[in-house]
């Protein structure tokens, strides 16, 4: 597998850049940083077609593809497949497992809570739904809020208790990581690892994407050495300019139609034979129509529900949220229908 990737350029596909970060997605940024720490050449692409897909981020090179929702995530896939592994010498190091657990559990839960529940949601909407019309983005945002609350075990009865637990664990994790980091640049033996990529990604999203009123951000700012290290590595890895091992930036187009270059334009109109659409393009167009139609149904349902509730706040009870979830489940189901269903256009 390593040989296959070596022969083809590796492409990392993430969500779009915001807040002066190459990607503001908390799952995508650590993968970007991991490849940069490894000095592994790659191209950076952005995908905003399916904003709530759990496959993003992913990497691809020729026939090789590794998605976020496979085998522990993209970084684990790259390690297991022998493509790039920064952790081979750290597995037996004391505190490796406990440090990994703090970052992947306590801090991951904290940033998830802040983006979707503990703030006004503006940062999350910008990261995930900025390319969508407001009603559709709002529906998808509320859907994700519901999913996050379920994942974190948050109910109306225990909301305050769970909030206190999440912030308490984050505070403990920041204190432990600050002590381990000291004045070094990296957590273990002053050499980069996947834990540094995960922690640096978390720190940069927390510092740049969360509002100044963020509780999590204020707890991180209590540790000067973490902030200094994050700023230093951000300068070296992200803001230092292009290099031979640096990524090339390119956005994934929203359709599969080829773009015309300047040399294709002529002052005189000319007719050319109509290109026969490939089967893949037909499937994409058909699914897109179904997807947009189902989104419209969900938006209309959302507006009707909000019209019948007190719209002073957007706190919806479980029954209303369940109804919206069913509508959005319809969207996802339709978008994944077998390609031989429905009329062909």
UniProtKB/TrEMBL annotation:
The entry sums up its family as follows: Belongs to the metaxin family.
Q: Looking at the record, which segments are called Disordered? A: 240-280
- List the Pfam families hit by this protein, alphabetically: GST_C_6 (PF17171), GST_N_4 (PF17172)
> CDD domains under this entry?
GST_C_Metaxin (cd03193)
InterPro entries, alphabetized: Metaxin1/3, Metaxin_GST, Mito_Protein_Transport_Metaxin, Thioredoxin-like_fold
A single Gene Ontology CC term: SAM complex
Name the residue ranges with Low complexity bias.
240-256
| Species annotation | Durio zibethinus
Record domain Thioredoxin-like fold: where:
26-120
Q: Which UniProt keywords apply?
A: Membrane, Mitochondrion, Mitochondrion outer membrane
What job does the chain carry out?
Answer: Involved in transport of proteins into the mitochondrion.
Metaxin glutathione S-transferase domain mapped to chain residues? 170-229
Give the protein name, as stated in the record.
Answer: Metaxin
- Localization per Swiss-Prot or TrEMBL: Mitochondrion outer membrane
